[in-house]
Amino acid sequence: MSAPMxxxxxxxxxxxxxxLVAAAIKRGIxxxxxxxxTVVGRKxxxxxxxxxxxxxxxxxxxxxxxxxxVGWVRNARRAGIVTLARAGQIEQFSLASLSPEEAAPILKRxxxxxxxxxxxxxxxxxxxxxxxxxxxxxxxxxxxxxxxSLAT
Length: 152
Fold this sequence. Notes:
- There is one protein chain.
- A six-stranded antiparallel barrel has the order 1-2-3-6-5-4.
- The mean pLDDT is 89.
- It has three helices and six strands.
- It is α+β, with helices and mostly antiparallel strands.
């Protein structure tokens, strides 16, 4: 039995870490699954950017909300379109939410890819894929469909 899921909070330390990670991603430094996600705010209509990790499964790509239904998740759901940038390459994607059954194996792969997010999950990384179905409500998974490239 794991501990209850920890609630995500943005503090000064997190903002500084995100700024450093964002600078690295812009230069193509760091793990290849890391990108800068930009989405238009649902209230402000201004672009918001945050570092994310993308799960690749063959030619399919997935975006996971490891910290729950946070601001970028709500904005992405409303906008339906996001951009991912890395090392000067910018791509635009539409989003499709996955069912818990579809999301489970992606969540399991995500947790193996980004073990630092483990405290935000109620299941352990070594749990069977089916155990991750219950996580889908707290950790939304979106299938990304490329709609184009943007100029840098």
